[in-house]
Amino acid sequence: MSVLRVGHSSMWAQSLPRLACLSHWSTVRYLSTPAGPRVTLNTSPTEFISNVSADQSLSTKQKIAQKARSALSCTDDKSNTLPNNVPFNVKLVDQQDRKIARAKEAKIDSTSRAGIRKTIIDPYLQLCKPRLTVLVVLSAICSYALSPYPATVGELLSLTAGTAMCSASANAINMGREPEFDRKMVRTQARPVVRGLVTPNQAYRFAASVGVLGVSTLLFGVNSTVAALGASNIILYGIIYTGLKRKHIINTWAGALVGAIPPLMGWAAASPLTHPGGWCLAGFLYAWQFPHFNTLSHNIRNEYKDAGYVMTCWKNPKLNARVAFRYSLLMFPLCFGLSYFNVTDWYYQIDSAIVNTWMAFWAFKFWWQQRQNYSKKIMADGIKFNKGLALANVYARKAFWVSVLHLPAVLILAILHKKGRWDWLFNENNNHNKRNS
Q1: Any idea of its EC number (predicted)?
Q2: Which residues contact 257 (CB under 8 A, 6 or more apart)?
Q3: Which of 224-228, 272-276, 305-309, 380-384 is modeled with the greatest confidence?
Q4: pLDDT digits 0-9 by tens, 195-242
Q5: How many Å is the maximal CA-CA distance in the chain?
Q6: What is the C-alpha separation between 294 and 299, in angstroms, rounded?
Q7: Which of 124, 218, 375, 401 is buried most deeply by CB count within 10 Å?
Q8: By C-alpha distance, which of 310, 247, 320, 259 is closest to 289?
C-alpha cells in the first residue's frame, strides 16, 4: 500500500491565482489487491478559503455594475458624452425634434384614411369578436337552411344582420366588463379595452346601439320569437355568463347555452319551435362547445387561474377532460335525431358518424390520459406525472383543432343530406325511365 499526501504549497498558490487554497491536508490512499488496483479516498472535510477579501469583492462588484450602467444607458441629451466602451452605435436625438415629429405623425394619423381605420374602425370591429360572431351567424344560417319550411331572401338577410349585431353587442359588454382580467392573459391582452383604444363606457354605448338595432332588425325582419331569443342571448352572455366566470365553474354550462340559442333563432325564423329538429340542432351546438372549450382551456389553465377566472380546467382537471369526452359522445344520438325527425336522410348517419368518431377519439385520448395522470400511483411519481401531463397537453391540442373542423363539417354534411335535397335528380331519372318504357 502506498500513500500520497498533497498539501498547501507555493507552487499550487502560484498556479491557481485568485482561487482557493487547501487549508488542510488531504490523504489519498492507493490500495493494490490481486483483483486489481483499488483507490480509497479520505473523506475528511476539505475547506476552501478565498484569497479575495470582502472589501475587494464589494469594490469589484461596484465597478462592474457602474460599467454596465454606463455602457447600456441611453440619453437624448446631445451635450452628454458617450462612454468609450459602448458595444453598439448610438444616435443621439434632440427631444424637441422628437416632439415635432410625433405631433406631425399624430396629425396625419388622425386625418388620413389609415388613421381613421386604426383609431376608430379596427377597435370597434375587435369589440365584436369577428371570428366568434361569424361562427354564431353561420350556425343560425345553417339551421335556417335545414328548416323543412320555405325560406325567403328577406328573412335570411334580416336573420344574418340581426344575429351578427346581437352577437357583437354581447361581446362588447363582455370586453367592457373585464379589462383588468383580460390584461392578465396572453390571448386577451390585445383587446381594445385593455389597450385603452376604447373605454368601458364607450364599449357599453356601442353594445347598446348595435343591440337595439339587432333586436329591432330581427323583430321587424323575421319575427318576435327570433327577436326575443336574440335579446336573451345578449343578457345571457354579456351579464350572466360574464359574471359567473369569476365565481363558479358552472359558467361553462351557461356559456354553452349561449351557443345553443343561434341555431334556435335560425330554426324559428322559418319553422315553429315545436318541431324537434330545431332542438336537435340546438343540442348539437350546446354539446359541441364542451370538447371545444375544455380542450382549449386545458393548455392555458394557468392563465385562467392567474387572471381570476374560475374554470374547470384548473379547479378539477379530471372533470374537465371527462366532460369533454362525455359530450363528444352525445354528438351521435343528436345527429341520429336529425334523420329520425326527417330533417336529413339516413345516409347522413354514415358521414356524420365518421366525423363524430374522429373528434370522440381525440377527446377519449385526452380523458384517458388525464384519468391516469391524476391516479394515486402516477401523482405520487413526479417524473411520470409530468410526462403524462405533457401527453395530455398534446391530446388536448389535437382535440381542439379537430373540433374546429368538426362543427362546419357536420353542418355542411347535414345541408347536403337535407331531406328531399336530391329528389329532383332521382325524380328526373325516374320520369326518363318511364318515358323510355
Answers
A1: 2.5.1.-
A2: 236, 286
A3: 224-228
A4: 989 999 999 999 999 999 999 999 999 999 999 999 999 999 999 999
A5: 119
A6: 9
A7: 218
A8: 259
Please state, in angstroms and rounded to a whole number, the distance separating the CA atoms of residues 194 and 178.
Answer: 8
Task: Count CB-CB contacts under 10 A for residue 262.
Answer: 28
At residue 36, what is the residue type? G
The ranges assigned to domains in the chain are 2-50, 116-271, 275-437
pLDDT for residue 83: 58
β-strand partners of 388:
none
Of all helices (H) and strands (E), which one includes residue 43? none
**What gap in Å lies between CA 239 and CA 224, rounded to an integer?**
22
Mention the CATH class of domain 116-271.
mainly alpha
- pLDDT confidence bin for 249, thresholds 50/70/90: very high
One DSSP character per residue, 259-325 reads: HHHHHHHHHHTTS-TTSHHHHHHHHHHHHHHHHHHHHHHHTTHHHHHHHT---HHHH-HHHHHHHHH
pLDDT at 41 over 90: no
pLDDT in tens, 148-159: 888 899 999 999
Mean pLDDT of 418-436: 68
Closest CA to 188 of 259, 244, 129, 124: 129
Angle between helical axes of 331-340 and 317-329 (0-180°, round to 10): 20
Pull the grid cell for residue 313. 380546467
Q: Output the nine-digit C-alpha cell for 282.
A: 340546438
Lowest-pLDDT choice from 2-11, 178-187, 211-220, 265-274: 2-11
DSSP state of 7: -
Distance CA 345, CA 368 (A): 34
- The CA distance from 280 to 434, in Å, is 39
Cβ atoms of 277 and 371 within 8 Å: the answer is no
- Specify the pLDDT at position 257: 94
Res. 53 pLDDT band, cuts 50 70 90: low
DSSP code per residue over 23-84: -S-EEEEEEEETTEEEEEE--S---EEESS-HHHHHHHHHHHHHHHHHHH-----TTSPPPT
Among residues of the chain, what percentage have pLDDT more than 70?
A: 74
341 and 277 in contact (C-beta within 8 Å)? yes
248: left (phi over 0), alpha (psi -120 to 50) or beta: beta
